[in-house]
Amino acid sequence: AMRGWYYLAGYVLVWSLPYIYFDLTSPEDNGGYLIMNFVGIGLNFALLYTLLSSNEILDSGAKTGIPAYFGLSILHSIGLLVGFVFLVLPGFYLLIRWIAAFARLIDSDEGIVSAMRWSWQRTSEHWLKLALAFVGPLAFYSIAIACLIYQEVFWELYPQEPWETMYTWTTVVANLALSIGMAWYALLGVAAYACLRDANELIAETFE
Fold first, then answer.
1. Which CA distances in Å does 133 have to 46, 94, 129, 130?
2. What pTM was estimated for this model as a whole?
3. Is the separation of the CB atoms in 175 and 19 below 8 Å?
């Protein structure tokens, strides 16, 4: 159990520190952020694979590599972007319904769309319970968003005030909160996938 916490803590630090550095030193470096986004997807894959392996969910290693995981990340992000455009709530609903898609992709060779469909179908009767569990990651996502809003409001209301200190601490808090929320979401995804997969296998064995 402690090893799992080490993995999560390591992910939070390795993910957030480079973003904090770029935000504080090179906020206009779009190329650097693009590279960090690709690195972030790799870190997400590594974290999910580690959590699945440490909990003995993977029977014979990952059945999908980073390219497929990257593809799922793109589709997942597009769906969430569309969902958040429509009054925010649909975005959170999609986050919940696709929570097990990444774990399913790594543990199967069914493909990206099939993994998303699998998660959607298996969570149909449990989305409300998953929504309650999602309160934790949502709280940290909200902290990150609040920090960004505070930066904008402070700049508009007090344009003459020195804002370097404010920008520094809100940037640190925002990135740490976002990385904790993402790690928590990955952990929930693994737990949800394990429960949903085991339940499905139990039903299949019952009718064999």
1. 23, 14, 6, 5
2. 0.84
3. yes
